[in-house]
Write a structure and sequence with these properties.
Number of domains: 2
Number of helices: 8
Radius of gyration: 19 Å
Strand order of the largest sheet: 3-4-5
Shape: globular
Distance between the termini: 37 Å
Number of strands: 5
Structural class: alpha+beta
Amino acid sequence: MARTKAVLGAGARLADHLAVAYLALNCPLAKVRQVLDELGAQSKRRRDLPAEVLVFYVMALCLYRRAAYEEVLRVVVEGLRSVYGDEIGQTVASKAAISQGRTRLGAEPLARLYAQQVQPIGPPGMSGVWYRGLRVMGLDGSTLEVADEAANAQHYGYSGSIARQFSLPAVALRGVGRVRHTCAGRRKDGTLPHLRARTGCTGA
């Protein structure tokens, strides 16, 4: 869906750079490049919008949901340069170039990085984390409205019981253990079948 042409305020610039730097420190550039190489998704030639920058850009979209795409990219590049210096080149791209870059990148690099980075943090024996040798995890879910396009409406359906003309197609998000395992699907399919398929769990 299109984003409003919001501009990030100059007063929040230090906080913005720190947020992106925190992403880069917890998901190092070397790891991002390794995953891109493994999947053959690394930029084949020098582009104005390299694949590794796009990875951090997609992460940052979750932090700046209401900001314009170009503004988010600017903050990402400046934040990465504050950590990696000239290893990250100055990048300026149009909304069309950003969209094309995201299409080239695809979802697999983000999915693999997520699987490698998001791990349980409670060590064996920690009080409240284990029960009879099994890790205790919570179960939660939410919905995310997506573009009102025919393919989305056909696959996901519309949210809630609101009249069709006042609602958008909604993706059902399910998660286990503070987002250790996540899956996206249709609301009508239920939570447990999706999570069992994602985690390999066959219990109740």
